[in-house]
UniProtKB/TrEMBL annotation:
E.C. number: 3.2.1.58
Gene3D superfamilies the record matches: Glycosidases (3.20.20.80)
Protein name as catalogued: glucan 1,3-beta-glucosidase
PROSITE patterns cross-referenced by the UniProt entry: GLYCOSYL_HYDROL_F5 (PS00659)
The organism's taxonomic lineage, starting at the top: Eukaryota, Fungi, Dikarya, Ascomycota, Saccharomycotina
Residue ranges of every copy of the Glycoside hydrolase family domain listed in the record: 97-339
Keyword Repeat assigned: no
Reactions catalysed: Successive hydrolysis of beta-D-glucose units from the non-reducing ends of (1->3)-beta-D-glucans, releasing alpha-glucose
Length: 474
């Protein structure tokens, strides 16, 4: 009996889920217009990172718990949520995760998010919270908290992006996908991983793409940060266009379907989705109410790190201008206040920093990391530079793109990645357009520190110190 039902389910849904139903133009006949969509909305958001998908640097305490005895080392610390569940086993993992889900984000957070002038939240969630892949150690259960979050968002008049942050095998190999395997995103290893991802999205569309969410769920992001340079981009494009069609077929709510840029150059998705370059006839379709999600950090390459605040400011002006020239509406859906990669475990448990050139990075050190999360150690210059870095992004993304979403709302101990702490420390303007230094893309600070790079500065400091030493010893 069961197999008969399964057969029927496959017959009815399979074609749509797996994209075989290409005869439609992807329009459900009973469409309900979302109360607001990305055409008439300017994003000012935060991501609830580290909540429904764990990230060690956001909540280190959950991971440091494994390093609690005298005979453990950092090597005993699970590196991601997958290993966290694997090491603890389902019962213990569930109990710890439930405690975390219950406490890390509460209704009060939504009240506060609203009170600091934000208008939406991006909520990362893993595929395993909808449908586990056979053999997964993951704990299912986060979906109830997502539902609470949507209720709270509605209460405080905030919009929600549901963001599928992890797919089977990992779309990027980063710990934030649930499964870390740096350099080896395994998502496309098996057809079943990709098919599983379609199924998960189908269940998301079926539930959250309905009338009851019309006031709140502004968009659904089909997959976060697929690492295009290491994936087969033809397959990524196929995934986007197929799941888009499924969204429009499945949903009655005409909300925004969000595509991360997959680390491709600006304009790439215009070519694929608007200009339809290189696209086979069968995949052509009408795309409406879509949004491209660009993420921008300047701390994950040595070149990016080795720049003065003046250079960082120029980068943002140029970057936002170029986004503004794209055809598909776009946001900067992740950015932060970071000017170094010093926050412990930012690059992953057990991984060093480019800033200090520690393993596995082989570059020359650019500076010292000590004190990055200790406010009393910050120099006036650090405070100013960070404030400018935040202001220029608010200014440029806010005026030249559909808006921005800061990563993230809160962390246990960072400064640069924690919206709330940045507000408390007066590095994040309040109100959000109350700028101290930046006026329309320009640094108006009369005491601008020079435009030389960090490394050059460090060298000069050393030279000056040496000269002083020589002078004082004479
Ligand atoms: C394709 O979708 C259309 C409309 O959504 C539906 O009428 C048709 O039965 C579907 N065909 C298949 C093979 O699923
Ligand atoms: C979809 O097809 C129907 C019937 O062919 C047409 O009326 C409708 O305008 C189309 N919708 C879009 C978005 O192309
Ligand atoms: C070392 O670890 C084991 C479990 O891994 C534990 O049983 C033992 O008590 C620990 N020893 C010390 C000295 O902490
Ligand atoms: C973990 O334990 C090792 C060995 O006791 C220690 O050297 C290391 O600093 C600890 N790591 C953290 C992050 O506390
Ligand atoms: C909300 O904001 C208030 C006032 O700034 C603060 O005291 C409180 O800790 C915040 N609560 C949460 C959960 O963010
Ligand atoms: C995917 O394939 C690569 C290369 O063979 C391998 O290193 C990796 O472990 C695989 N990952 C998964 C999740 O299957
Ligand atoms: C990428 O995927 C497409 C579609 O499955 C396939 O035709 C192509 O050969 C793949 N390219 C590479 C380099 O594997
Ligand atoms: C349109 O959406 C509704 C609600 O999600 C669903 O019940 C219905 O099957 C969809 N229609 C088609 C043709 O897919
Ligand atoms: C389209 O194909 C051309 C030539 O094969 C290639 O250079 C270009 O990058 C492709 N564009 C996209 C969007 O895939
Ligand atoms: C869906 O929303 C878009 C953007 O507002 C609009 O252009 C389109 O006509 C809507 N489609 C339907 C079928 O309501
Ligand atoms: C703007 O921010 C400054 C501190 O950065 C603060 O003193 C001032 O009160 C703020 N202005 C308004 C209108 O809130
Ligand atoms: C802001 O700067 C841009 C580019 O430099 C200029 O075109 C625009 O007029 C300026 N806007 C205001 C309000 O000064």
């Amino acid at each position: 009996m069961i197999w008969v039902i399964q057969l029927i389910i496959v017959a009815v849904f399979g074609a749509q889920v797996f994209g075989f139903n290409i005869s439609t133009n992807g329009t459900n006949s009973t469409i309900i217009q979302a109360s607001i969509n990305s055409d008439n909305f300017q994003y000012k958001g935060v991501a609830l990172g580290g909540w429904l998908v764990l990230e060690p640097y956001i909540t280190p305490s959950l991971f440091l718990a494994f390093n609690a005895t005298a005979n453990t080392t950092e090597a005993d610390i699970p590196i991601d949520e997958y290993r966290y569940c694997e090491v603890l086993g389902t019962t213990e993992a569930k109990s710890r995760l439930e405690a975390h889900w219950n406490s890390w984000i509460t209704e009060q957070d939504f009240a506060n998010i609203s009170s600091v002038g934000l208008n939406m939240v991006r909520i990362p969630v893993g595929y395993w919270s909808f449908l586990k892949y056979p053999g997964d150690p993951y704990v299912k259960g986060a979906q109830n908290y997502l539902d609470d979050a949507i209720d709270w968002a509605k209460k405080y008049d905030l919009k929600v992006w549901i963001d599928l942050h992890g797919v089977p095998g990992s779309q990027n190999g980063f710990d934030n996908s649930g499964y870390r395997d740096i350099g080896y995103p395994g998502w496309q290893n098996k057809t079943s991983y990709v098919e599983h991802s379609y199924e998960v999205l189908h269940s998301i569309y079926s539930k959250y793409g309905t009338e009851s969410y019309r006031d709140t769920v502004i968009g659904i992001e089909v997959v976060n940060e697929p690492l295009g340079p290491l994936l087969n981009m033809t397959m990524v494009e196929q995934f986007y266009t197929t799941t888009y069609k499924d969204a429009r077929n499945t949903q009655t709510l005409n909300n925004t379907i969000v595509f991360h840029d997959a680390f491709q150059a600006l304009g790439y998705w215009d070519d694929v989705l608007v200009n339809k370059k290189n696209m086979t006839t069968s995949r052509r379709s009408q795309y409406y109410n879509i949004l491209v999600d660009h993420h921008h950090y300047e701390v994950f390459t040595v070149d990016g790190l080795n720049q003065s605040i003046g250079q960082h400011i120029t980068n943002i002006v140029n970057y936002a201008t170029d986004i503004g020239k794209e055809s598909i509406p776009a946001v900067v859906g992740e950015w932060s206040g970071a000017l170094t990669d010093c926050t412990p475990w930012l690059n992953g448990v057990g991984i060093g920093t480019r800033w200090e050139g520690t393993s596995p990075y082989k570059n020359k050190a650019l500076g010292k990391c000590a004190g990055v999360n200790n406010w009393s150690k910050w120099l006036l210059k650090d405070k100013k530079d960070h404030r400018k870095w935040i202001e220029i992004q608010l200014d440029q993304y806010g005026s030249k793109t559909k808006g921005w979403i800061f990563w993230c709302w809160k962390t246990e101990s960072t400064i640069e990645w924690d919206f709330q702490r940045l507000v408390q420390l007066d590095l994040m303007p309040q109100p959000l357009d109350n700028f101290t230094y930046i006026k329309n893309g320009t640094d108006t600070d009369p005491h601008k520190s020079g435009s030389i790079s960090r490394a050059a500065q460090l060298k000069w400091n050393l030279v000056i110190t040496a000269v002083l030493l020589v002078v004082s010893s004479v």
